[in-house]
Amino acid sequence: MTAAYPFRRTCKEVSALLIAREDRELPLSERLALRLHLAMCQACPRFERQVLTMRNAMKQWRNYGDDE
Amino acid sequence: MPPQIPTDFEQQLVEQRSYLMRFARLQLRNDAWAEDAVSETILAALARPQAFEARSQLKTWLVGILKHKIIDSMRQRQREVTLDSGSDDDSADPLEHMAFKADGHFAEKPADWGNPEQDLKSRQFFAILEACTDKLPAVQGRLFLMREWLELSSDEICKELALTPTNLYVQLHRARLRLRECLDLNWFAQAPMP
Q1: Radius of gyration (C-alpha) of chain A in whole angstroms
Q2: Among A47, B28, B105, B150, who pairs with B110 as Cys (CB 3.0-4.6 Å)?
Q3: Where are the domains of chain B?
Q4: Architecture in CATH for domain B8-76
Q5: Cβ neighbours of B143 (radius 10 Å)
């Protein structure tokens, strides 16, 4: 299966990759697999939005104290 | 020598103490270490008031000093800082809490978090974000904030704490998923639907 579809990933695998991407650079093959999956999946782009929202939120939180 | 009257600058520094303690506690997860780091920060600031004169924001300057003191503190205690409590709950993969089918695809779509740009302006949102961060198991919380508050790279964290990358990534994976779960439950599920 993996040999026949080297870039096929499950949503669970994709979720783990989207989280890992926050802390390390993914290998090219994983980046490609991620992109292909996100293009055809309805659910994972939502999870990606959540991860990006958290990234943005932490960034704002770091700079937030100055306004208090 | 006559007793010294605190100067205006000293007074201003002391007023920032509780603000600095909040971040030191959140990052170090140990009150005594946090007290030390904050005291060292205030002493360092007192020792070179001229360094502040050119800067407009006292808070920002102090937080910058505090971050260095905290990194020193964790480097000195690297074993304690990364020693996992080993409870089952800490070592569970939060990915298993998410609704996946047996074939690894989502059983239900993750929630639409709506309009984050609007939420992110809200003070209450940041209070929940901070509470969720504080609820992380100690090691996960420290490593997560080293990335997100101290803004260290994964390589730098491994070097400072003598961790293997695998160990670091496992902890960060759990921390990020737990935080996601906590926000999903405590903020986004409460927010009015668009």
Answers
A1: 15
A2: A47
A3: 8-76, 85-188
A4: Orthogonal Bundle (1.10)
A5: 28
Q: Which of B100, B147, B165 sits opposite A12 (nearest CB)?
A: B100
Q: Beta-carbon neighbour count of residue B187 at 10 Å?
A: 19
pLDDT digits (tens, 9 = 90+) for B64-113: 999 999 999 999 999 999 987 767 677 789 998 888 999 999 999 999 98
- The closest CB to that of A57, out of B60, B104, B120, belongs to B120
CATH 3.40.640.10 fits domain B85-188: no
Partners of B111 on chain A (C-beta within 8 Å) are 46, 50
Chain B's closest residue to A45, CA to CA, is B110
- What is the pTM for the complete model shown? 0.90
